[in-house]
Amino acid sequence: xxxxxxxxxxLSEARLCxxxxxxxxxxRRALLLLSSQGIIELxxxxxxxxxxxxxxxxxxxxxxxxxxEPPLVRQLAQNPGDVxxxxxxxxxALEDAxxxxxxxxxxxxxxxxxxxxxxxxxxxxxxxxMMRELVTRTSLIVGLFGSSENASCPDxxxxxxxxxIQSHDPELAEQLxxxxxxxxxxxxxxxxxxxxxxxxxxxxxxx
Amino acid sequence: xxxxxxxxxxLSEARLCxxxxxxxxxxRRALLLLSSQGIIELxxxxxxxxxxxxxxxxxxxxxxxxxxEPPLVRQLAQNPGDVxxxxxxxxxALEDAxxxxxxxxxxxxxxxxxxxxxxxxxxxxxxxxMMRELVTRTSLIVGLFGSSENASCPDxxxxxxxxxIQSHDPELAEQLxxxxxxxxxxxxxxxxxxxxxxxxxxxxxxx
DNA sequence: TTGACAATAATTGTTAACAATCGTGAACTG
DNA sequence: CAGTTCACGATTGTTAACAATTATTGTCAA
Lengths: 207, 207
What we know:
The structure is a homodimer of 207-residue chains. Chain A is mainly alpha-helical and 207 residues long. Chain A has helices at residues 13-20, 24-36, 55-78, 82-101, 104-121, 125-145, 157-166, 170-186, 201-205; strands at residues 10-11, 40-43, 47-50. The first copy, chain A, contains 9 helices and 3 strands, in the order E-H-H-E-E-H-H-H-H-H-H-H. In chain A, strand 2 (40-43) and strand 3 (47-50) form a beta hairpin. In chain A, helix 3 (55-78) packs antiparallel against helix 8 (170-186) and helix 5 runs antiparallel to helix 6. Chains A and B meet through helix 2, helix 3 and helix 6 of A and helix 2, helix 3 and helix 6 of B. Chain A binds a DNA duplex (30 and 30 nucleotides) through helix 2.
């Protein structure tokens, strides 16, 4: 999710055990769940590897988001609810703070989380889960096909979407979100994919 | 999915082991995956129970389907593709055959599968997975809140939807599907839920 | 130098025993 | 007789050793 592990990175059980200080059972349970969400790939007798989505899968993810998110935001703008507005406003503040401090991984994390919070605001548990999966995969894809550093959500589009929701403008909110998704997608270079490297040390280093 | 296990049925590991003739590890892996899909509930130190969705979760599932399926079918009707039409036509034939033979569990299974095949026809792997989960949960819900036996998809609505797709009529297809979902939902009695019983013997009997 | 082959090392998959937790029922007390 | 407590049985969670598979390295021959 924070793009600290490159796609195709091998995740050895023993390594993960000592990294997180837990038994093999916990690790295997976690790997199974991650693979069921398509975040890693579990190859029989060969181990776990960070998923490496191809062009087709990337398009699937964006198509699914285009299908779900616009009507979601439209609906939210029609009837936001005070609690949701407070939560989202607070989130935007966090994003701004992280952007000011130039904390890269935090910015990436929060950028994704904004979209999951939109889904959470719908109050629909299923849609919330779906969106969480979609956002995670989007992070993977941006990490793979992201051409430059502006890969994370551009500028303050999140803030503008929230403003549209606050002013009960479903049309505008929907339109802004569509543009936002398009910006993310058009910032990708679908042909030249990033070189898959093996650096699990990234996690070890900061732990 | 076939409604042979009532909600809240306890799924003991030992029982499942001897039923399927596999080790405890396999069972636990399967239970973990099922719980991640919301089909069963894993209570810590207490075991696995068939999920028992409440009114709110049931509404979530239908709301999610209402969000996703209509635009999906509309899109499919605009550009079906010969392979998809063949697959769907073949599926309708299977449904008819099962209905003629009055094979209840088969009818239930195929009724759900029709919707997942609609999603499969979109060619989007994500949407396919989502729909499969939604359909499974719908089966659970119909089993819980279904008032009479006509709970399974009424008459030949599936066939009509397919016809609309075949004749490239997106509006009609979308409208028929919306009606179809409404029929399913309105056939439920959201208040008086079925009595949760414990009959894992159902599986043992037919195995 | 390159290719195939074999042996070894490393890693994953499985099994079985052990520990911990929870529900139940009997015994006891007020 | 009601309520509480304790102990037992059953079930789940964990650990560790073992088996099976795969990857790697070294050797030999062309």
